[in-house]
Each structure stands twice: as C-alpha cells, then as structure tokens.
Specification:
The protein has 349 residues and is mainly α.
Length: 349
C-alpha cells in the first residue's frame, strides 16, 4: 500500500484537490507552514558545508534566463498576443521550487547540489524580475528616474516573498544542527574528559522523519491544486481560448525544461558526496547511481520543477493577470511528470 501511494501520490493529490476544491480552499493559509516544515526536514539532511556551486548550476541558470526572454520575444513577434507571450515567459523564468530537493531525493538525485541551485535560482529571479518586467508590461513603463526609484521596493517585495520560505527553514535546520552538535560535544567532554569534537558528524536526522517532507509536499500540492481549480472555474468562460493555448504550450515547455536539464546534468556531472557524509547516508537512493546519473536527475529537477506559487503571484503583480494561467497550467504538467518519474523509480526497485 505504501509503495503504491509513494509512486502515485502526486496525481492522487492533484485529483483530490481538483474534485474537493470548494472545501479545501479555506486551507490556503496553511500552505506557507506546510512548505516551511517540509523544507526544514529536507535541509536537516544536508550539512551547509557541503553546499557548493558546480558548472552545471551556472549552465542551467543561464539557459533558463536565455530561454525565458527568447521565448517571450519570439512568441510576441509571431502571435502578437502579449498574454500568451507573458504566460510562456513565466513558465521559464519561475525559479526552482523550494520542494525540488524532496522529489530529486526520492529519485536518487543529489539533495545538497539541488539545494545549492535552489538558493541560486531564487535569488537570481529576485534580481532579474524587478529589473526586466517593467520593460515587458506596457502599463509599467517608467522613466529612468522612476525605474531607479521603484527597483529596490520591487526587489525587496519579491525577496520578502521568497526569503521566509527559503532562508527560514535553511537557517532553522542549521541552528538545530549546531545545537545538537554543541550538546554532543559538551556531553562527550564531560563523560570522557576529552577535547570537544570539531566536526558535524554527530548530527543525524532520525530515520523515522526521512519521509515527512514528501508527505508534507503531497499535502501542499492538494491545497495548491484546489486554488488552481478555482482560477480555472472562475475564468473558463471568458478566457477559454487563452487557457487552452497556454495549457498546450506549457506542456511542451515543461518537457523541454526537464529534458534539457537532464541532458546538461549528464554532460556536466558534479560530485554529490559531502565532506562529512557519504551519499548512502545523505540519500540512500543515490548510492547505486553513477555521478552522471545523479547529476542528470538533479539538474533535470533544477530546470524543470518550478516555484509555481511564486510564479502565479509574480504574473498577477507585474504582468497581465491572465498570464498567471501559464504558471497555473505548469503546475499540472510538472506534477504529472514527477508522478511518472516516481512511478518508474518505484517499479525499478
């Protein structure tokens, strides 16, 4: 039963969210807390000293930003529809989901390498979006003086939406690690009358809590699917054509990003062993795989799995609100794709 749920949890949660959305919408305020604790337990697995930048981090980030604006200008030139162009832009420019390390870990990817890229991707987006979106939306065109005056408030506003969900769990997990290590060092010093331990090997997340982040992610997907369903039901009569086009195009964009990310990771493999832990301790699913295989999974999730809740908010705030349907449609495709991947991994064991 547990094996069936693990391999089918994402599409089941999306189905439940879509069917029971009127009753699940009141749970929307719980989403930030679900994400916070989900990330907290994920970051507890990773020693901050193991977070290092690798070549594929920069290649994936560069490809993401280049494709974002190339797709926007080409779509606008060919279709003349700013809503479609902005919707596809959002599908590319959304940063990596803060929950991506959880799915990557289930498939045998490198949790620490993806955590590093998640931090890089979200901060890059926080800088690029307020700097470029005023140039994309005609209603937000500004003079040089106005741009200089409004850049920092826009930058800080976006950062304020990202930082609590990203840095809060990260530093909380780090403080827990430091606290436990201090306790163990003090205990051993008192017991054995030896000098304090200077490394971080004493801290390990209890094995029983290893699956908690995944189930918290499933719960958040259920609530998020309910909110997307409400958006579709509210706008389907007036925006049916745009919704269908964005639904189809976002499917293609989703496949491109996952596929391109996997290819980049395979071509630019990066070590995933930390200085204090072996892969088998950080993430047992990664142990049997080669370095290229681990990097392929990790970079695929880094490029393809997006922070869609942030994307929907950015589109509604800075662009035509209808362009948020692109990010909303992407929620469906990325989670179906992840469901297929988890199903395949579960049946290989």
């Amino acid at each position: 039963m547990r094996k069936f749920f693990d391999s089918n949890a994402l599409w089941l949660s999306m189905l439940i969210g879509a069917v029971f959305y009127p009753w699940l919408l009141p749970l929307k305020p719980v989403l930030p807390w679900l994400i916070f604790f989900m990330l907290f337990f994920t970051f507890c697995k990773v020693n901050p000293l193991d977070l290092r930048l690798h070549k594929w981090h920069w290649v994936v980030l560069g490809a993401q930003m280049a494709l974002s604006f190339l797709t926007y200008f080409v779509t606008l030139r060919l279709s003349g529809d700013p809503v479609l162009a902005q919707g596809l832009l959002m599908c590319f420019i959304m940063p990596t989901a803060t929950a991506a390390p959880i799915i990557a870990g289930k498939m045998g990817g490198s949790i620490q390498n993806l955590t590093t890229f998640t931090l890089l991707s979200n901060f890059a987006t926080a800088i690029i979006v307020p700097a470029t979106f005023p140039l994309i939306n005609d209603q937000l065109q500004m003079t040089n003086y106005q741009f200089a005056e409004q850049f920092w408030p826009a930058f800080l506003l976006i950062l304020s939406r990202v930082a609590p969900l990203l840095l809060g769990p990260f530093f909380s997990a780090w403080l827990v690690r430091i606290g436990f290590n201090y306790y163990y060092r003090r205990k051993e010093k008192i017991t054995n009358h030896q000098s304090p331990i200077t490394n971080h090997k004493s801290f390990e997340l209890p094995k029983g809590l290893a699956v908690v982040p995944f189930y918290l992610w499933v719960a958040s997907i259920t609530v998020l699917s309910a909110t997307v369903t409400q958006t579709v039901v509210t706008n389907y009569q007036s925006q049916m054509t745009n919704m269908l086009i964005l639904l189809a195009c976002s499917f293609f964009v989703c496949l491109v990003q996952f596929g391109l990310g996997k290819w980049i990771g395979y071509k630019l493999p990066a070590p995933s062993k930390g200085r204090d832990y072996q892969d088998v301790l950080i993430n047992p699913a990664a142990a049997p795989k080669t370095m290229a295989g681990v990097s392929s999974i990790t970079a695929g999730q880094a490029f393809g799995q997006k922070n869609t809740s942030l994307g929907v908010w950015m589109a509604q705030t800075y662009l035509d609100p209808l362009s948020a349907l692109g990010a909303a449609a992407y929620i469906i495709w990325q989670n179906l794709f992840n469901s297929v991947q988890l199903f395949v991994v579960a049946h290989k064991k």
